[in-house]
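ugh ok fine here u go
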Amino acid sequence: MKNKMLAVLLGLFAWGAQAQMTPVGLWRTIDDDTQKPKAEIRIRQNDAGVVSGVIEKALITSDLPNCNLCTDDRKDQPKVGMEIIRGAKKVSGKDVWEDGNILDPENGKTYTLRMTPMEGGSKLQVRGYIGFFFRNQMWIRIQ
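structure:
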């Protein structure tokens, strides 16, 4: 009986660890220049498996609270509450999400997106790229 209980507990633990290999959750971004926490991003997945991400909280005060440099429907909208990740989907058979885009509300540019959970899902490698040029960030899971 003890062995069965132990097997069930270990199975639940393994399932919980694997369940975190997803970008869905709350993430803390790190400023590229200062290396200090910058914002908290909530990533959600809809019923079709498409993920999106919204700035839930700014951790650094900005002189420009709106996305003045955005060129789409987000132009002049507040950065907090703004959807910055759109349209990413899981790559079949891999723990990678791509085919979406990510907006940098500081410069108004939209980049093609690739997200890869790392270190058991405690970190998220976020790559934004235009052509051959790319920028990586490592986000830290809050929940």
